[in-house]
Amino acid sequence: MLMDLFTQLLAQLGQQERELTHPAHALIKSRQRFQSLFQNVSQMVWLKDPQGRYLACNPAFEAFMGLSESLLRGKSDDDLYPPQQAQRYLEIDQACLRATEPVVTERWASAVGGSRRALLEITKLALRGPDGQPNGVLGIARDITARWHLSQFEQLRSRILELLAHGADVSHLLQVLVDGLRLLQPEQAGLVALVATGAEQGQALRVVASAGLSKDFIQMMDGQPVASQLDACAVAALSGKQVVVTDLAACRPGVLRMRQGACWAQPFFDALGRTLGVFSVYTATPATPSAADIDLLEQLARLAGLAVERHQVAEQLRTNEAAFRALAEHTPEAVLVHRGGIILYVNPAALRLFGAQTSDQLLGTATYDRIAPAYLPQQLARMQAIVGGKTIVPLVESRFVRLDGSEVDVEVQGTAMLYAGEPAIHVSIHDISERKRAQEQLRVAASVFSHALEGIMITAPDGCIIDVNAAFTRITGYSRDDVLGHTPSMLNSGRNTPLFYQQLWQDLVQRGGWSGELWNRRKDGEVYAQMLHISAVYDQRGAVLQYVALFSDITERKAHEKRLDQLAHFDALTGLPNRALHADRLQHAMVQATRRKQKLGVAFVDLDGFKTINDTYGHEAGDHLLITLARRMRLALRESDTLSRLGGDEFAAVIVDLEQESDCDPLLQRLLTAANQPVLFGSAVLQVSASVGVTFFPQARELTPDQLLRQADLAMYRAKQSGKNQFQLSGFADSMF
Questions:
Q1: Where are the alpha helices (DSSP H) in 552-578?
Q2: Which residue, among 105, 176, 183, 124, has the nearest Cα to 148 in the 3D structure?
Q3: Which residue has the higher pLDDT, 407 or 160?
Q4: Which helix (H) or strand (E) holds 576?
Q5: Which CATH number fits the domain 2-143, given the four candidates 3.30.450.20, 3.10.310.30, 2.30.42.10, 3.40.50.1820?
Q6: 33: pLDDT confidence band, cut at 50, 70 and 90?
Q7: Which of 476, 445, 474 is nearest to 458 (CA)?
Q8: pTM score, two decimals?
Q9: Angle formed by the axes of helices 619-636 and 610-617, nearest 10°
Q10: CB atoms within 10 A of CB 628
């Protein structure tokens, strides 16, 4: 403390010089005595008379002021400083003369002419004569600028780290940095520009934060190609090295001449050494940066690089989040933050994990209450290690306690962070109850491995098969010796894509299990469908010990499902779409016709004389006739059209992609011809004709598929009444197009 220095200096003056019989001016009369006392003191020391005139000073004070003692002697602050500044110094001196104790202040002070500015801790003491009246002021000052800069920078650094921990926007982070520069060095301006890659101009500078610079200059800098080298910022970005220009005006025209003054620029990089951007400092007048200026620039650039790289990593994680959630959307991570064992923050997933309805049920409570007693020593040790900055195993299995008292198996990761500006612990919690249950099921399954009806395949973590059961051999045809040492890819049928297997393995690694259907190939080459369940088996340390796959042959089930689908949507006799599928396809065709601004026709076909065939030759002949005519009529239409059997001898056709209604006529004629052709049944010749009613879509009013079919049905009856073996239009098709 400066008070200690005062005590030492006054002691050196000697008992005689501090007695009332020796006034302070006696010290001034003895120049050699003053110098011997103060010239080797590192702090600044000076002496003034009661009127504020400098009487003496030591070399440290001369160095700061930029003036020798001989030039200072006899001058007052009014002679050296602007009026307002001189008045402040005078008021402090007068307060000191009135005080009985030393006056201690911290103040930013400037050298004469403003060539230097520093934060000083100043202690002033009034020297008094025998009558007790003040006859001088002794001042001692210590430069605490470096200490203040260090303190301010540490605060800035902590603020940046806190913002990083809370996921603040990168532009806000960088603005805080340049604002911090202005706080530390008010006479300097700052700019942060990121290197962006464009398709046309290559790499360019994008200004994301600035302080103390004009809008015109910022606009001129923003978008500047790195290769232009028009500014120290661009040169630093291109070279990847620090650039210092002490006088921008002295540079050649067109290069580094975008403003007056000086500039020093420091690029910052990612972990791979790639240039992310540049932190630049500007002064209004030519200047040479001090070692402290360069050190501050480098530290600010490092923080900028950290902020930008963290932002890029966060952006990449957000980009991948959608893909991850598609694989693990039912296993969201629970997150809580605690300090000193008290919960400060919980996310919605944590509420669900602990069975809380609101965050108030958890906030402010002890983390210890949420840890199962058997795992409390484990978690307490991890907390102490994190607080102490020690290395811990990133992920461990543990067990937590819900609010209702039930326990849940979890996987826990804890890391140190700043929360609300203070150290805290960030905890990610993954519910592994399902995985633990699956592991237990696998252990049980292992005891009946040889007798299981499902095929079982066990692989090492690298995928090599290490065991199979008898059911595996029965289903695949491969013996145990055939597959040991091979990977399951030998069973690949080729029907599933590489992306399918990539997603399967990603899900397996992240969730510890996968279930689904796939197609494999037996030893004899037959492709079959299987239902597959894969689970990871872990050792006590949480490492994958084995993968166990249980599968069953579901080929017959798939075939049965296909047959059921066929029965639900297709006519069992003719194989044509049935009434339900007809309605679905007609609805789809109506949507397409509206979108494409085209027409479609709906034809209702009824066979003439079919009942006579049935009555004369029997139902077997009738069925043969229906099958044959269905095939012929289908061939009479185009591939894009649909022919359906509605029931009995009734059929319906959906005729699409018509520019005008008359385009339908040739197709209708072909339908009539197909229905009129004779059909051989044994020695009998079967022959019928068809009556066809046609309507069109769209019409002047909105219609449902069923209404269109009824219009065509009515037109078909008019065809029968008009002599059969012909088609009739419905008369309702008042076209919209």
A1: 555-569
A2: 183
A3: 407
A4: none
A5: 3.30.450.20
A6: low
A7: 445
A8: 0.39
A9: 140
A10: 18
b/e for 392-430, b at 16 or more Cβ within 10 A?
beeebbbbbbeeeeeebbbbbbbeebbbeeeebbbbbbb
Give the pair of three-digit tokens for residue 329.
């959307």
Contact 449, 546 (CB under 8 A): no
What integer pLDDT is reported at residue 603 of this predicted model?
95
- For domain 150-316, the CATH superfamily is GAF domain (3.30.450.40)
Could you report the per-residue pLDDT of 584-641, keeping only the tens digit for each? Answer: 999 999 999 999 999 999 999 999 999 999 999 999 999 999 999 999 999 999 999 9
Please name the amino acid found at residue 176.
Answer: V
- CATH fourth-level superfamily of 570-729: Reverse transcriptase/Diguanylate cyclase domain (3.30.70.270)
How far is the C-alpha of 718 from the C-alpha of 714, rounded, in Å?
A: 7
Q: Which residue has the tokens 């995985």?
A: 435
DSSP state, 187? T
Residue 461 has pLDDT above 60, yes or no: yes
B/e letters for 516-550, b = 16+ CB within 10 Å, e = fewer, are eebbbbbeeeeebbbbbbbbbbbeeeeeeebbbbb
Cα–Cα distance for residue pair 170/183, rounded to 1 Å:
20
Burial of 377: CB neighbours in 10 Å, binned 0-12, 13-18, 19+:
exposed
Distance from C-alpha of 298 to C-alpha of 153, rounded to nearest angstrom: 12
Intrachain domains 435-558 and 570-729 with the same fold: no
Cα 70 versus chain centre, distance: 67
Reading the block at residue 582, the tokens are: 């007809």
Q: Which of 154, 329, 301 is nearest to 240 (CA)?
A: 301
Domain ranges for the chain: 2-143, 150-316, 330-431, 435-558, 570-729
The whole-angstrom separation of Cα 240 and Cα 302 is: 14
Helix H or strand E segment including 517: strand 513-521
- Report how far residue 357's alpha carbon sits from residue 203's, in angstroms, rounded to the nearest whole number: 51
- Rounded to whole angstroms, the Cα distance separating 193 from 207 reads 4
Burial of 468 (0-12, 13-18, 19+ CB in 10 A): buried
CATH fourth-level superfamily of 330-431: PAS domain (3.30.450.20)
- 368-408 pLDDT tens trace: 999 999 999 999 999 999 998 888 888 899 999 999 999 99
Q: How far apart (Å, rounded) are the C-alpha atoms in residues 436 and 538?
A: 9
CATH 3.30.450.20 describes domain 435-558: yes
Q: How many beta carbons lie within 10 A of that of residue 315, not counting itself?
A: 11
